[in-house]
Design brief:
By secondary structure, the protein is α/β, with parallel strands linked by helices. It has two domains: 11-258, Type I PLP-dependent aspartate aminotransferase-like (Major domain) (Aspartate Aminotransferase, domain 2); 261-385, Alpha-Beta Complex (Aspartate Aminotransferase, domain 1). The protein is built from 13 helices and 15 strands. It has helices at 11-21, 31-43, 54-64, 82-89, 108-120, 140-150, 203-213, 248-258, 261-279, 313-322, 338-341, 351-357, 371-385, and strands at residues 47-51, 72-75, 93-96, 127-131, 153-157, 165-166, 169-170, 179-183, 196-200, 217-218, 236-237, 284-285, 293-294, 300-304, 360-363. The strands form four sheets. It has a seven-stranded mixed sheet with strand order 1-9-8-5-4-2-3, with helices on both faces. A three-stranded antiparallel sheet has the order 7-6-13, with no helix packed on it. A three-stranded antiparallel sheet has the order 12-14-15, with no helix packed on it. A hairpin with a 2-residue loop joins strand 6 (165-166) and strand 7. It is globular and about 80 Å long. The model has no long low-confidence stretch (mean pLDDT 97). It binds pyridoxal-5'-phosphate. Pyridoxal-5'-phosphate (PLP) binds at residues 53-55, 79-80, 82-83, 131, 157, 159-160, 183, 185, 196. Pyridoxal-5'-phosphate is lined by residues 53-55, 79-80, 82-83, 131, 157, 159-160, 183, 185, 196.
Length: 387
Amino acid sequence: MIPYARQDINQTDIDAVVAVLRSDFLTQGPVVPAFEKAVADYCGAQHAVAVNSATSALHIACLALGVGKGDIVWTTPITFVASANCALYCGATVDFVDIDPCTYNLSVERLVEKLALAEKVGKLPKVVIAVHLCGQPCDMAGIHALSKQYGFKIIEDAAHAIGGKYKDEPIGNCRYSDITVFSFHPVKIITSGEGGMAVTNDATLAKHMRLLRSHGISSTAVDMQPRPAQEIWNYQQIDLGFNYRMTDLHAALGLSQMRRLDKFVKQRHAIAKRYDQLLSALPVLTPWQQADSYSGYHLYVIRLKLNEINKTQPQIYDALHAAEIIVNVHYIPVYRQPYYEQMGFKAGYCPQAEQYYSEVFSIPMYPGLTVAQQDQVVAAIREAVGA
Ligand SMILES: *Cc1c(COP(=O)(O)O)cnc(C)c1O
């Protein structure tokens, strides 16, 4: 069986986790800040806040940007549900901007149109969440220019994109956004088991996110309210936060994986290059790459040219699974999920996203995927599409 994604764990990773197990702190120890510093330094961001998932990071990022009841958040429909759910957690409403048919990311053309309409009816978004699908960066300069014009904030959901570059600079430097969020789930580019991180250049946002990740509790004197001297106030809860902390065990794995990040992304590019060549003879569309960007290549997605194939997308999906090639669909448009349909969204809302959904597969892509396995994947696709 060949999965679409999987982690790469070596002895150094294992030793790093075991060392924490033998140390004084399993959580709230020194390894979490060390991992935060490694990611911040790598990305060229000033602050990093490690949490237990990218979902948690998206939630506290929205809260730190002031998202609440009555606010509107926009994102792309072709993403994991977490990119939209974070707004709902804050009591805000969510809306979706259709994708660009070439990059599969949120379309800046559609964003321009939607903003103009929203301004007329007084329903501008407070935050736009840009998702670097598959690791391919969004048109951040374009989105950033619009944020200045319309006054919205930007979160980059870079769950797929650590190790990638946009205009020759690392994803996560927040040049075009307020906060960037990473995921360290085992299917992603590097893993901490579960885990996520929010990076930012804004000290106030970073401080607020730190507070929110740990119950809204501070033990720093300057943050605390004056209380009678005869009472003990060694901490105060000053906001409503959560327990979204990352443990030192997870951070140790993440920190160890950071040392192989560049190698992982290079290996992903090598696989992508082979796939590009091997698949060029088949009735499928291989991923288009932005010239001034370097993808993290979390996913390698192909689109079926169904008018040249005698089978349906589900038939090909089943055939590949029968051949033990575990392809996946990234993603079902979020608003088509039953929970979202119940909020009033209807099929057909974002036509490009739905077209993409009806043709797409993510095929196996991870550093340990051997050349023989890559060939096996391509052979199975050839067979499944009847080419
Ligand atoms: C995986 C993923 C998330 C959620 O990450 P977790 O760390 O599993 O919470 C969010 N957004 C996107 C685009 C993802 O792929």
